Amino acid sequence: MGDEDRGGQLPQRVPDAARAGLPSSAEPERTEPERIVTTEPGPRAEPGPPAPPGHPAQPGRPANAGPVAEDEVTEWLRGTARPRSAVSPRPGRPGAGSVGTMPAGRFLALMAVVLVTAFSAGSLAVLAVRHFTRPSAGGPANGGASGALARQEAAVRGEAAAWVAQQVSHGIIVSCDRTMCAALRAHGFPARDLLVLGPASPDPVNTAVVVETAAVRGLFGSSLAAAWAPAVLASFGSGPAGITVRVIAAHGAAAYQTALAAGLAARETAGAALLKDRRITALPLAGAQLTSGQVDSRLLLALTALARHQPVSIVQFGNTGPGASAGVPLRFAELAETDRAAHLTRAAYVRSARAYLSAVNARYRPASMTTVVLPGGQAVLRVEFTAPSPLQVSGP
After folding, report:
1. CB environment 85-109: b (16+ within 10 A), e (fewer)
2. Domain ranges of the chain
3. Strand, helix or coil at 182?
4. How far apart are CA 177 and CA 134, in angstroms?
5. H or E segment at 236?
6. What is the pTM of this model?
7. pLDDT digits 0-9 by tens, 204-226
8. What angle do CA 170, 171, 175 make, to 5 degrees?
9. Most buried residue among 133, 188, 282, 336 by CB atoms closer than 10 A?
10. With contact defined as beta carbons under 8 Å apart, do 164 and 172 qualify?
């Protein structure tokens, strides 16, 4: 089939010379018509802004000049950073340096640059905010170390408050920080017997006991332990959450140690005399505690008075203050709940002892008397006094 049958038209063949970009003798040489820019109405050239005094007018940018080149945008930005009087047109570039009326193409290119810059800055700002506001590991936002410390402090504070409310005498002044004093009130310690310590408080030398928390340590540092409260009645917890219940030495640590040594000697003498009473028997541990002066002087007087009423059998002495300082007197005695020499039943013996000790002189009247079962299964009557113990023996 011939070429005429394929479409009725013959395809035009491009000479090899034309493909190579060379002029061909078969085709006339084509020349690009000269582009003419006129100033008559109708051309699509956009007018530029009025020229400042002393500068030539800027020609407008033709609409068919194509997209704005990157160097034109750079030149425009560079021009905006200088006063208008310093902007001069660039030869050979229509419209370069004009900052008044902006062509649409240049405006779109500029906006693209601005948007890209703003997006980059916004992304960096978001990353910075996320970095600096991200909760640190172990922070309170995720229940980390700070939250655990707060819970530990609350638990230790509750334990210490319960012990002070039960073991420290009501009627003496106890100093504490505001939070600890609130906990003591919640556990039943009289509010009238509490002294709240604050930044303007002097050393609590006019109180009998101080509850040393982290806040109190922050107020007084080591001066309490070194100068005014050398003896520990009880301690709870450890580290920053630790709480120590201390005895205040009204006349200073040196005077306290002197009085403690004198009281120890007096208690040794009183304990040895108690063991010589024929109506008192003591197991070996209790006997050693008596002769070494470890027993509270009020307890010595109470047992002496009870032995005049009925026979007494002492199992042991003890102290409920965890972590108490060496030399702090033992404040409770555990007595057998029956004695053959009394010729009483167990229940009758306990009732008789309770009744008698409840009526003795207030200076050596026990704060509590309760039945306690020892680890070996023996039931004993615990006769207990509150803290702090007097250093000297006083009474009949």
Report:
1. eebebeeebbbbbbeeebbebbeeb
2. 70-104, 148-250, 264-384
3. helix
4. 34
5. strand 231-236
6. 0.64
7. 999 999 999 999 999 999 899 99
8. 85
9. 282
10. no
